[in-house]
Amino acid sequence: MADTTPHRLITDPAAVATPSDEGSAFSLESIQHTYDYVIVGGGTAGCVIANRLSEDPKISVLLIESGGNNEDQLMAQVPILFGKMFKTEADWEYYTEPQTALNNRKLYWPRGKLLGGSSSMNAMMFTEGAPSDYEEWVRLGAKGWGYDNIKPYLRKIEGHVLHNEHPGTTHEHRGDKGRIQTGYSYCGAIAKDYLRACTNNGIDYNPDVNTGTNPLGGTEIMSFIDSKGRRSSSATAFLDAETLARPNLRVLIKSTVTRVLFTSDPKPRAVGIELALGPQEPGRFRAAAKKEVVICAGAINTPQLLLLSGIGPREQLDKLDIKVVFNQKWVGENLRDHPTTGSVSFRAKSGKTLDYLNEPDGAGPALQEWMEKGTGPLTSNVAETSTFFRSTDTKRHLFTTKAHALNVVEDATSGPCAPDVEMIGAGIAFLKHGAEIAPSGTSIFTIFPILLRPQSIGYLKLRSSNPWDKPIIDPKCFSHPNDIAVMVRAIRLALRIGRSEPLAGQLELKPHSTDKEDVFWPGDADPDVITDDEIEAFIRRNAETNYHPVGTAKIGASPSEGVVDPELRVYGVEGLRVMDASVFPNQMSGHPTCIIIAMAYRAADIIQGVVAH
């Protein structure tokens, strides 16, 4: 019987699972801790599903998270500090294989390792993408996940607070009763000047890119922020004190699920999980699931767990002596990310950016304002503004020069109104994932070009059968020539925007700069002089992730087309579902957080039989 006494967070696995010896034979009868549902991963999706399923007091739920409590992390509360969580205990700190197209560099991939997952450590950006992205999913086999299916859930999850400075954002297109709060963070004057400069380059101002009508244009970014100026995450929204007090919900933190347990007669069925405290801790613990195991471990950990549990390509599993439960070629394949070119940094006039916050005692007044009022520059999410445009729209945007012929790009978007490029405008330096600050005595305005629709597709594989070994991650970043071509156009446009008023009046540009090692190159480079080859070389030296891996356990219409069916059930077995970014059939043209939360909310309805799929 599951313990149903009221509780908060649990750190002792013996309180919710049955001790067992590592490698011991599995016997369902030997497991004394049984729940209706066991959810693996208390991240962006897992918190939502745990909340929804435990709304029914007759249903018992165990949620297991590898990381710690989000409330223990100040940086998870102060919006501008999200980058300070990178390479800490709150980060899985993954690294890719050397990327052939990027001068054989290994890329750092941060992923949230705490309650709320990456929703507790990202830039808090609420963007839904284009409606045609979802319709493309349907064409790829994800029946029932079109925009009309997901839109009601995008509104259900959201509690939007209207803002006097944003009259163009109304409740006609926003949710106002949902658990996760949205609004607008701090936006500095120079970032607003960036949007005005964009309008002079064919990127119209759009007060709300999340209406389902027009995802294109420049906008102040809607963010996951509450009325007190703090981050609103899956954990703060769906694992609040009232939810944690439910006697039918148990939440175990700082424990990692090492495999899913199956019975095999007559068909493999997931009946529980095995977990451990860590690689140096002896023993294992097991918990049983009467109804289902739901994996919500993210686009890296979900395929890793499936493979460790025997679901994946037979050839890979046989080499590692892992018993094959179901031969499934798609597990770990179809890895897609949102890569960036790296920061394009412009020298700003003194006092025009937030770089002063990094000076000794520079953040003192801002910290006091945030603590007392929940306002001010510390509520900035860094990515204060952004633009979404199509690299093929040569009538609106000047991507070429008189001296250089227009490079050729293919349209990789999901539809004629969908963007393939995003360019963030940030009134602060963001170098090396925020690890480096502006050079002493300087201020930086950053344009951050992001490829939304990459054609480069990678994979994830097990490094070994040891669950503590990080997997092999190879996104093959910028390996497709069209990806480079699109971003060459984007950077040239970024340089033009930097030379357009009113933004240009806030910058100090050095004409015809050629010092490619300088932090302000290519920002100082003349867009009519710099060559495509020079821009391409910059991308290969500086490209990084924008933190959005998806697709490694994708939805498909059949086992030959995907890992899970449209109801998120894992093909080839019973009693096992997946819900996180790994199920995306293709990459979206927006940031995935709100999409994952909305899908998880709907997934809970599917699991409970509330909606017919």
UniProtKB/TrEMBL annotation:
Transmembrane segments: none annotated. Signal peptide: none annotated. InterPro entries: FAD/NAD-bd_sf, GMC_OxRdtase, GMC_OxRdtase_N, GMC_OxRtase_C. Residues 112-135, 298-312 form the Glucose-methanol-choline oxidoreductase N-terminal domain. FAD binds at V257. Keywords: FAD, Flavoprotein. It comes from the Eukaryota. The active site is at H548, H591. One of its GO terms (molecular function) is flavin adenine dinucleotide binding. Its cofactor is FAD. It holds the Pfam family GMC_oxred_C. Belongs to the GMC oxidoreductase family. This is GMC oxidoreductase. It comes from Piloderma croceum (strain F 1598). The lineage of its organism: Eukaryota, Fungi, Dikarya, Basidiomycota, Agaricomycotina.
